[in-house]
Specification:
Radius of gyration: 16 Å
Largest sheet: 5 strands, parallel
Number of helices: 9
Bound molecules: adenosine-5'-diphosphate
Structural class: alpha/beta
Strand order of the largest sheet: 2-3-1-4-5
Shape: globular
Number of strands: 5
């Protein structure tokens, strides 16, 4: 199964992503984790990405697309994967479509986790990551609504979008995830 997971920052996407990759045995491709690892390792990519990440802005498309292109070549992606945090712009989604068309491995489903902005601000306030300061959270929400939410239309038109309610306990939300993904899992 090849799956894109979309949701605003703080929607609980990371928690659900861990449960999804375990249940369906998928590689977990989190661009946020990859960028934080690059930053911690002090690579050129990490240094470039840091200036955007710490401001709550998206890292430029060309850097992210190159990162994902390389990652998708790794052997663990052959058995299916969950893309977590990518694509985040229409340009990224178009680049992904092209990459996957070249490989003959189209996406199976795009899962949207829906949580409203007020719940997000409360959840993130309790988390304590460097980019979880209130003003940076507000900027990340702006980036989500302006740059990432248009993907919902894009994938809706492609007939790939399935949306689920992200409010409730971890188990309640995961039950909704399973009701969408179980029927798709080979
Ligand atoms: P969250 O979903 O909680 O906002 P992530 O861990 O997915 O956080 O991403 C953290 C930061 O990394 C983003 O705010 C952004 O700066 C950068 N980033 C991650 N993925 C992408 C992407 N696909 N395109 C551009 N920037 C990205």
């Amino acid at each position: 199964m090849r799956l894109v997971f979309i949701g605003p920052p703080g929607a609980g996407k990371g928690t659900q992503a861990e449960k999804i990759v375990a249940r369906y045995q998928l590689a977990h491709l989190s661009t946020g984790d990859m960028l934080r690892a690059a930053r911690a390792a002090g690579t050129e990519l990490g240094r470039k990405a840091d200036q955007y990440m710490s401001a709550g802005q998206l890292v430029p498309d060309d850097l992210i697309i190159a990162l994902i292109r390389q990652r998708l070549e790794q052997p663990d992606c052959r058995g299916g994967y969950l893309l977590d945090g990518f694509p985040r712009t229409i340009a990224q989604a178009e680049a992904l479509d092209l990459m996957l068309a070249e490989k003959g491995t189209p996406l199976d489903v795009v899962l949207e986790l829906q949580v409203d902005d007020e719940a997000i601000k409360q959840r993130l306030a309790g988390r304590g990551r460097a980019d979880d300061k209130p003003e940076v959270i507000a900027q990340r929400l702006v980036a989500y609504h302006q740059q990432t939410a248009p993907l919902l239309d894009y994938y809706g038109r492609a007939g790939l979008l399935r949306s689920i309610d992200g409010m409730g306990t971890i188990d309640e939300v995961f039950a909704r995830v399973r009701s969408v993904l179980d029927p798709l899992a080979g």
